[in-house]
From TrEMBL:
This is Adenosylmethionine-8-amino-7-oxononanoate aminotransferase. Pathway: Cofactor biosynthesis; biotin biosynthesis; 7,8-diaminononanoate from 8-amino-7-oxononanoate (SAM route): step 1/1. PANTHER family: ADENOSYLMETHIONINE-8-AMINO-7-OXONONANOATE AMINOTRANSFERASE. Its EC number is 2.6.1.62. Keywords: Aminotransferase, Biotin biosynthesis, Cytoplasm, Pyridoxal phosphate, S-adenosyl-L-methionine, Transferase. InterPro entries: Aminotrans_3 (IPR005814), BioA (IPR005815), PyrdxlP-dep_Trfase (IPR015424), PyrdxlP-dep_Trfase_major (IPR015421), PyrdxlP-dep_Trfase_small (IPR015422). The record marks F9 as: Participates in the substrate recognition with KAPA and in a stacking interaction with the adenine ring of SAM. The keyword S-adenosyl-L-methionine applies. One of its GO terms (biological process) is biotin biosynthetic process. Homodimer.
Length: 427
């Protein structure tokens, strides 16, 4: 079933079938025509525990009948307090580094990143007002990064035809080369040189760049980059929007590198994926720099849905699920399940660069005409759809990021479809 009215504004619907989904549970999407799909990418990396988790659905229903939405400027409510306390307890801790102890709620990953940038610039602005530092505004970013689709988030992300129309509005950034294994020292030297120019902050997707092609880099590089920033007093911002909530095998990717950022953005799986919520966490020095009786120094970002009570109730339930259920056990089993099957796929001549980071797996398909904007990705998407699978390749990179509840049989069908894609499209 298609919805032609929406075609012009969907970036991925042109001339392709658009399945009409009516119901979902676990890793399964049910379509209007009675068929079903396995959700191989957690509906854009979001639904960690699977669709319509009964505990989260019940928490949403309870909260919707009690307190739905409250202006959060000057008011508060228990679901938000519970989530803020819970988040702070879960943040990566490193001896000698300040903790992420303060939480600002918003409603999407892009906004959480915007808030992170605003906090970083506000920090330096307020220190300049106090005569402690020069104002700083330059942001350093890692090559091939993606941080969202608002103007600020696009400015710090990879530039391409997909955001060319807005180039005049995007601000200038300092781009650090991606630390490919044979370019690690080059990347570190470039970062050190850029940090010496006193930028405001360096923002990274820790350990894996998602939309940029599921490119992984090792924990020692994340650690080395964070250390360089600390040495130069450049704020280190971790965008854990994709990597958070167990995706990389640990709750947050920064844990694997022993890194405690100055600012961190989280979203997607914060509610288990059922409803939008995001948070930006900051250390006390960033919070204190904004706390003042002088209204010129306050942090201004007040969107209507900040800390929406229903979304916070879902997030509080997600945190309870993490505390009370064996989510880590489920993740470990999934990590092993993917690793076993990836080994068989890795021998296929149509594939190269198999990689896995926790529950995220990616592999490159060696196909003719495999550029990011070629027809390959939509053709692959349609090919997988015909086999009952929701996947959304990035150029010639096919990746998997399933809900943690996907079962062995479903994983087998996913990998059978991947092999079939290699046979069909590989060179
Ligand atoms: N940062 C990263 C690393 C992401 O992967 C994404 C979303 N894919 C975002 C930010 C933006 O999040 P949202 O789509 O919720 O705005």
């Amino acid at each position: 079933m298609t919805s032609p009215v929406w075609h012009p504004f969907t970036q991925h619907g042109l001339n392709e079938p658009i399945p009409h989904v009516v119901r979902a549970e676990g890793a399964t999407l049910h379509l209007a025509d009675g068929s079903s799909l396995i959700d191989g990418i957690s509906s854009w990396w979001v639904t960690t525990h699977g669709h319509c988790h009964p505990r989260i659905a019940a928490a949403i229903a309870r909260q919707a009948g009690q307190l739905d939405q409250l202006i959060f400027a000057g008011y508060t409510h228990e679901p938000a307090e519970a989530v803020a306390r819970g988040l702070v307890d879960l943040m990566p801790q490193v001896p000698g580094r300040d903790r992420l102890a303060h939480v600002f709620f918003s409603d999407s990953g892009s906004t959480a990143v915007e808030v992170a940038l605003k906090m970083a610039l506000g920090y330096w602005h307020n220190r300049a007002l106090d005569g402690l530092d020069e104002a700083r505004s330059r942001i350093l970013v890692l090559e091939h990064s993606y941080h969202g689709d608002t103007i600020g988030a696009m400015s710090i992300g990879e530039r391409g035809v997909y955001n060319a129309a807005w180039t005049p509005l995007l601000f200038d950034v300092g781009t650090i080369p991606f630390p490919h294994p044979d370019r690690e020292q080059e990347a570190l030297a470039a970062l050190a040189a850029a940090c010496a120019q006193q930028p405001a902050a360096f923002i990274v997707e820790p350990l894996i760049l998602g939309a940029g092609g599921m490119l992984t880099y090792p924990p020692h590089m994340l650690r080395a980059m964070a250390d360089i920033c600390a040495r130069h007093d450049v704020l280190f911002i971790a965008d854990e929007v994709m990597t958070g909530w167990g995706r990389t095998g640990t709750l947050f990717a920064c844990e694997q590198a022993g890194v405690a950022p100055d600012i961190m953005a989280v979203a997607k799986g914060i509610t288990g994926g059922a409803i939008p919520l995001a948070a930006t966490l900051a250390t006390p020095r960033i919070f204190e720099a904004h706390r003042s009786t002088d209204r010129a120094r306050l942090f201004y970002h007040s969107s209507s849905y900040t800390a929406n009570a229903i979304a916070c109730a879902a997030a509080a339930e997600n945190l309870a699920i993490w505390r009370e259920e064996d989510v880590r056990g489920r993740i470990d089993a999934l990590v092993r399940g993917i690793a076993d099957r990836l080994a068989s796929l890795a021998g296929h001549p149509a594939f190269a660069n198999p990689r896995q980071l926790g529950t995220i797996m990616a592999i490159d398909l060696l196909a003719a005409d495999a550029g990011y904007l070629s027809d390959l990705a939509p053709r692959l998407r349609a090919f997988f759809l015909e086999r009952g699978l929701l996947l959304r390749p990035l150029g010639n990179t096919i990746y998997l990021m399933p809900p943690y509840c996907i079962d062995a049989q479903q994983l087998d069908s996913v990998f059978a479809a991947l092999v079939a894609a290699g046979d069909r499209f590989g060179m």
